[in-house]
What we know:
4-stranded mixed β-sheet; 3 domains; about 25% strand; about 45% helix; D-Maltodextrin-Binding Protein, domain 2; alpha/beta; Arc Repressor Mutant, subunit A
Amino acid sequence: MDLKKLRYFIAVAEELHFNRAAKKLNITQPPLSQQIQSLEEELGVKLLERTKRQVRLTSAGTIFLEESRNIVSQLERSIKVTQLASQGKIGHLSIAFVDSAVGGMMVNVLKGFRERFPDVQLTLFEMTSAEQLKALHDGKIHVGFLRSVDPSKQITSRLYTNESLVAVLPEMHPLAIHPTLSLHSLADEPFILFPHHMGASFHDLIIDFCRQHGFQPHIVQEAVQMYTIVNLVAAGIGISIVPSSVSVFQRSDVVFRSFNEDTPSVPLYAAWKTDMSETVLINFLEVVKETVNSQTSKLV
């Protein structure tokens, strides 16, 4: 059925006058009358009672008017939704991140994207870097914020930010009184570190940092989540070295201290499947880029 006929019928049914309906539709009366007649013939149902003085709906016409409005309204909604989806203004985005990425620019990225695209549904997952890479390959997330890159061409990675390393100590630790620390002063301390099998690059970064300054850290406990590491430090299990962003997990019984030595950079990457071309993802990555550029310019 021609949708134009439905629009013509709705106009006549609302005006109950062919001349007024024709003017409303910006056409002449004869083709309007022909379209209504053709519609009735197609349906095999009389929709309008016509006399020289008035036009009125039949009982079937009254029902068909309501159905026609629903059809046109649904079509208009479908067109609008489709257009918004093509522009990335509605849809769904799954985002994963390592727990140490929740502060700083990550908060600004999510806030900026939510303000610009309020109708996009965000699903957030906290995952290790290894878990994110698997989820990206499996198509379970759209984008991840992680500490390592995938060597394959299937995953595209963009450097998001670089962080320094800091020490985290119990508040009552003798070294906590110093505003900064020498790394070598931690040589005899028990360490709580991120496990090697969950992220070799980050684990090895800290081990190599210590070795370059003359000692092998004594690891007494491993923990996957950074806030767990901070809590274990608070419990007196040991000390740790973490990315500077972990300082967002402030507790009154721990302190974060920067090092006197230059520390290796701890990269955080945004990563997504190379063949992923959804507009909603492109929009999100643009917000990420703008946020990074904005934050960087403030530091210059």
